[in-house]
């Protein structure tokens, strides 16, 4: 049977219900989204590899299992895309870098394995900024696939480094995708592309088989239509993994009957709207007002600590260690963005004492942020100070007059979870985002608040023109 056009914008639960109701098969659903990848996501430079043969095999297996009464759960038969830093046996994993376009890694990342066990159907490896942005890029043209283009305005950036997942979910070419974040790489493209993105707690999701940019800061997470979708995907990919010694032993479940209900205790960041674009400010204040009937809101100050310096030093040092071979081999000169060809060299000369001191201060940051958030279910803030910048301008030029990234540095240094949801539109018709930040391993609290916000608004249902 034909898959209806509006399936492109359906949630995971909606797609699963229609699949189990016999409205279409998993194979038909895969074909539907494969077609959208070719027609709509590729022109946005969002796709590295379409995995059609694998997708149809996995979809037919899902159909056979469902007919036999074996239901693996809410992701069974649902197509998805994976950022191209996740290893996939038999399929190239490029890390977004021109010299690694043909790189083959003879295993599946743990996340890919777990999604297969959940019955999800891999239909594409999605584009990313080269080496996940760790080389210091300052422009949208920083991937061999071309600049990530925004579904709402093709003259604007999709965000990085998970550019492909942002664009592909944003244009309705995949129901969900897996992205990664070291400092902003899920939150930024999710915000810019008008979708929902969850950055889990550091260690919540195994990173085995994922490219390492910063061993102590990298995180994998879902990029979806809704907060509920994020919870469903997180439940499939979270959990201990003997192949990743940094992965937490804590169990995770996403119960349909969540105990976290209004009234919520929300913190509102003082000065959150200073040095943000006017539309970002207006949309944020409107969102806080919409949530007010279901919450108590308390204004708080961010503790005064060197978040950006600490996060930047740790990332630079760990990136230099991870990619020293790329520099010494000379392959670094094949990078797409000129600044990425020399960006790693300076990091190689950062003194060890600076890295050690950054890690020492980081512990103080973790303790301070945890105590700061302890009285609350979530902290609210604008996800970013601006909408997506034009693809023909350096980031430093477009963003320089707006706010700093201290809150983002604090969150990632502390390794705590956050979720961004769309909350309106701003300059040039581009989406803005609202961020909910929580304590370590409190994903379900922030998911509950985000679900409530999406229950009382419809920004997550707004679509770009195709």
Descriptive report:
Helix 8 links the parallel strand 9 and strand 10 (295-300). Helix 9 (307-322) crosses helix 14 (406-414) and helix 12 crosses helix 14. The protein is built from 15 helices and 13 strands. The chain is of the alpha/beta class and 466 residues long. It has one domain (11-461): Alpha-Beta Complex (Amidase signature (AS) enzymes), CATH 3.90.1300.
Key descriptive features of the protein:
single chain; 466 residues; alpha/beta; Amidase signature (AS) enzymes; eleven-stranded mixed β-sheet; 15 helices; 36% helix
Précis, in short:
The protein has about 475 residues and is an alpha/beta fold. Helix content is about 35%, strand content about 15%. The model has no long low-confidence stretch (mean pLDDT about 95).
By DSSP, the count of extended strands is 13
Instruction: Give the class-level CATH name.
Output: Alpha Beta
Main sheet strand line-up: 1-3-2-6-8-7-12-13-11-9-10
CATH homologous superfamily caption: Amidase signature (AS) domain
Report the span from N to C terminus.
23 Å
Unreliable segments (pLDDT under 50, ≥5 consecutive)? Answer: none
CATH architecture classification: Alpha-Beta Complex
Structural class: alpha/beta
Give the count of helical stretches.
15
What percentage of residues falls in helices of 4 or more residues? 25-40%
Rounded mean pLDDT score: 96
Subunit organisation of the chains: single chain
Shape: globular
How many domains make up the coordinates?
A: 1
Q: Could you tell me the strand content as a percent range?
A: 5-15%
Helix and strand string, N-terminal first? HHEHEHEEEHEHEEHEHEHHHHEHHEEH
Largest sheet: 11 strands, mixed
CATH topology, anyone?
Answer: Amidase signature (AS) enzymes
Q: Radius of gyration in whole Å, from Cα? A: 21 Å
């Amino acid at each position: 049977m034909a898959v209806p056009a509006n399936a492109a914008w359906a949630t995971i639960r909606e797609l699963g219900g229609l699949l189990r109701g016999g409205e279409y098969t998993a194979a038909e659903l895969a074909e539907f989204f494969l077609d959208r990848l070719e027609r709509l996501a590729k022109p946005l430079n969002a796709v590295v590899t379409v995995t059609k043969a694998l997708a149809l095999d996995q979809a037919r297996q899902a159909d056979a299992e469902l007919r036999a009464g074996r239901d693996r759960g809410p992701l069974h038969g649902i197509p998805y895309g994976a950022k191209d830093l996740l290893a996939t046996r038999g399929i190239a994993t490029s890390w977004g870098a021109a010299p690694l376009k043909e790189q083959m890694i003879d295993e599946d990342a743990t996340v890919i394995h777990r999604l297969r066990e959940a019955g999800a159907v891999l239909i594409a490896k999605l584009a990313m900024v080269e080496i996940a942005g760790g080389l210091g890029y300052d422009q949208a043209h920083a991937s061999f696939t071309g600049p990530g283009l925004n579904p709402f305005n093709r003259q604007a950036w999709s965000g990085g480094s998970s550019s492909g997942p942002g664009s592909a979910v944003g244009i309705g070419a995949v129901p969900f995708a897996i992205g990664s974040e070291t400092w902003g790489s899920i939150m930024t493209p999710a915000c810019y592309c008008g979708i929902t993105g969850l950055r889990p707690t550091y260690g919540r999701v195994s990173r085995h088989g994922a490219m390492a940019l910063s061993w102590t800061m990298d995180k994998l997470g879902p990029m979806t239509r809704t907060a509920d979708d994020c919870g469903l995907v997180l439940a499939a990919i979270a959990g201990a993994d003997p192949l990743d010694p940094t992965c937490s032993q804590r169990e995770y479940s996403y119960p349909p009957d969540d105990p976290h209900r209004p009234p919520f205790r929300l913190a509102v960041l003082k000065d959150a709207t200073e040095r943000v674009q006017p539309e970002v400010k207006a949309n944020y204040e409107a969102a806080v007002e919409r949530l007010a009937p279901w919450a108590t809101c308390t204004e708080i100050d961010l503790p005064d600590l060197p978040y950006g310096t600490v996060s930047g030093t740790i990332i630079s040092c760990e990136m230099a260690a991870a990619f020293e071979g790329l520099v010494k081999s000379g392959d670094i000169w094949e990078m797409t963005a000129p600044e990425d060809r020399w960006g790693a060299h300076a990091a190689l000369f950062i003194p060890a004492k600076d890295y050690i001191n950054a890690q020492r201060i980081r512990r103080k940051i973790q303790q301070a942020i945890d105590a700061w958030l302890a009285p609350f279910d979530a902290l609210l803030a604008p996800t970013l100070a601006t909408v997506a910048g034009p693809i023909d301008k350096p980031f430093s030029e477009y963003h320089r007059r707006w706010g700093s990234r201290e809150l983002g540095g604090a969150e990632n240094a502390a390794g705590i979870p956050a979720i961004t949801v769309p909350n309106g539109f701003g300059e040039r018709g581009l989406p803005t985002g609202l961020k909910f930040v929580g304590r370590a391993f409190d994903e379900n609290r922030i998911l509950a608040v985000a679900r409530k916000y999406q229950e009382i608004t419809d920004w997550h249902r707004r679509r770009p023109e195709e």
